[in-house]
Design goal:
By secondary structure, the chain is α/β, with parallel strands linked by helices. The chain folds into three domains: 3-49, Transferase, Pyrimidine Nucleoside Phosphorylase, Chain A, domain 3 (Up-down Bundle); 79-328, Nucleoside phosphorylase/phosphoribosyltransferase catalytic domain (Pyrimidine Nucleoside Phosphorylase, Chain A, domain 2); 332-422, Alpha-Beta Complex (Aldehyde Oxidoreductase, domain 3), CATH 3.90.1170.30. 46% of the residues lie in helices and 13% in strands. It has helices spanning 3-11, 18-30, 35-48, 52-63, 91-101, 120-124, 136-146, 159-169, 177-190, 211-227, 250-261, 267-283, 290-302, 305-316, 327-330, 357-369, 406-418; strands spanning 79-83, 106-109, 148-151, 195-202, 231-238, 247-248, 336-340, 353-355, 383-385, 399-403, 420-422, 430-434. A four-stranded mixed beta sheet has the order 1-4-5-12, sandwiched between helices. A four-stranded antiparallel beta sheet has the order 6-9-10-7, sandwiched between helices. Helix 5 crosses helix 14 (305-316).
Length: 436
């Protein structure tokens, strides 16, 4: 079929046969399908959806657009985690080395910022010298020797997804369940995993803002993954507040190092990281149950073993060998750091401060810490730190804005203040679990 006929069929709500989907994806890979046509099909899918069979076909076609890795030579289970995206969500930075310290292997292929959410690769690229695009030889070497490697998609690993992912980001087609499903799982299937755990965010800072929508996405991901032969479960986690007490790239890297070394650990961030790691260890056959997995994760952090693996991974992928000890010497700081004070009319929020968390992510994008176009460069230094929690005292700053200039700080401050809202008591970090 011609690309325009495939678009027409989906525009009109008709199901696409697997061979048509495979043909379209092949055209994306070899350049025969234009960016405009990708955007048009993405919007048609956004509006009309896809059946489970169509989603499986799209996922497999995107997986098969490039190489599929094989880790059968490793002496332990190969597991991974993927988040659907949040604000202040730097879980991967601590999770991968902790799981590796527990005996699993974690080849984590991550993405860049998408919409209002931060990207794991953007955070790692704040480290001078860190290689997010190693060749497969180096990637395999680091995974074998360290136990984990957090990288981006290599040139021939699900290359069709890399094109589609960037176009979705700037065409308002991010929040489509089948497109999210295919994007996430194509990379994970291509990575040759033995098991996968999904962190499906729910709340004002997530792409799925209510529990029913998040369950729909989690169910789609779990069913399509297991239908494609990959053992997968999902945890639904809270995103009604930034997960870390910061949002940005270098600032989240600083937060992660403080977490790993025990200097400071945001409570909800710790709960989510331990719960996801426990699920990964159970899926990989290392832990007997979630409680056993959680205990192993906690020991990996308390003993410093996770921090050691993180340092080894950074050095092995080209970063400084003393990054943990001297991170402030390596991570860039912008010229301006301004505390953001609440207005008098916000005083009633003391003890019950909440946010429209999506707006916090957009404030980081406006500062330059995210993208409005796929080709945009990211300013790794800017962001928000010391973000207040629900127990805000009514007098302290709401956060500190790290910006390049006064005008950028003003814009970010206005957006953040407009995002303040009243919330009830803190809920559980883990909202639900979905399995096959």
């Amino acid at each position: 079929m011609l690309p325009q006929e495939i678009i027409r069929a989906k525009r009109d709500g008709k199901p696409l046969p697997a061979d048509a989907i495979a043909e379209f994806v092949a055209g994306v890979t070899d350049g025969q399908v234009s960016e405009g046509q990708v955007a048009a099909l993405a919007m048609a899918v956004f509006l009309n959806g896809m059946s489970r069979d169509e989603a499986v076909a799209l996922t497999l076609a995107m997986r098969d657009s490039g190489d599929v890795l094989d880790w059968s030579d490793l002496p332990g289970p190969v597991v991974d985690k993927h988040s659907t995206g949040g604000v202040g969500d730097n879980v991967s930075l601590m999770l991968a080395p902790a799981v590796a310290a527990c005996g699993a292997y974690n080849p984590m292929i991550s993405g860049r910022g998408l919409g209002h959410t931060g990207g794991t690769l953007d955070k790692f690229e704040s480290i001078p010298g860190y290689t997010t695009q190693p060749d497969n030889t180096l990637f395999r070497k680091v995974v074998r020797e360290v136990g984990c490697a957090v990288i981006g998609q290599t040139g021939n690993l699900a290359p069709a997804d890399k094109v589609i992912y960037g176009i979705r980001d700037v065409t308002a087609t991010v929040e489509s369940v089948p497109l999210i499903t295919a994007s996430i799982l194509s990379k994970k299937l291509a990575a040759g995993l033995g098991a996968l755990v999904l962190d499906v965010k729910v709340g004002s800072g997530a792409f799925m803002d209510d529990l029913a929508k998040a369950r729909e996405l989690a169910t789609s991901l779990v069913e399509v993954a297991n239908g494609s032969g990959l053992k997968t479960t999902a945890l639904l986690t809270d995103m009604d507040h930034p997960l870390a007490s910061c949002a940005g790239n270098a600032v989240e890297m600083r937060n992660a190092v403080d977490f790993l070394t025990g200097k400071a650990r945001d409570p909800m961030l710790y709960d989510v990281t331990v719960a996801l790691g426990a699920e990964m260890l159970v899926s990989g056959g290392i832990a007997h149950d979630a409680a056993d997995g959680a205990e192993r994760m906690e020991k990996a952090f308390a003993s410093g073993a996770a921090a050691e693996r993180f340092a080894q991974m950074v050095a092995a992928l080209g970063g400084p060998s003393d990054f943990i000890e001297r991170m402030d010497a390596y991570l860039e700081t912008p010229p301006m750091r301004r505390p953001l004070m609440a207005l008098p009319e916000h005083a009633h929020l003391a003890g019950k401060l909440g946010f429209d968390t999506r707006q916090i992510g957009l404030a980081v994008v406006e500062l330059g810490g995210g993208r409005t176009r796929p080709q945009d460069a990211v300013d790794h230094a800017v962001g928000l730190t010391a973000i207040s929690g629900r127990d805000w005292d009514g007098k302290s700053p709401i956060c500190e804005i790290w910006a390049r200039d006064e005008a950028a700080a003003d814009r970010a401050g206005e957006r953040i203040l407009s995002a303040l809202r009243e919330v009830g008591p803190s809920g559980d970090a883990i909202r639900d679990r979905v399995s096959a």
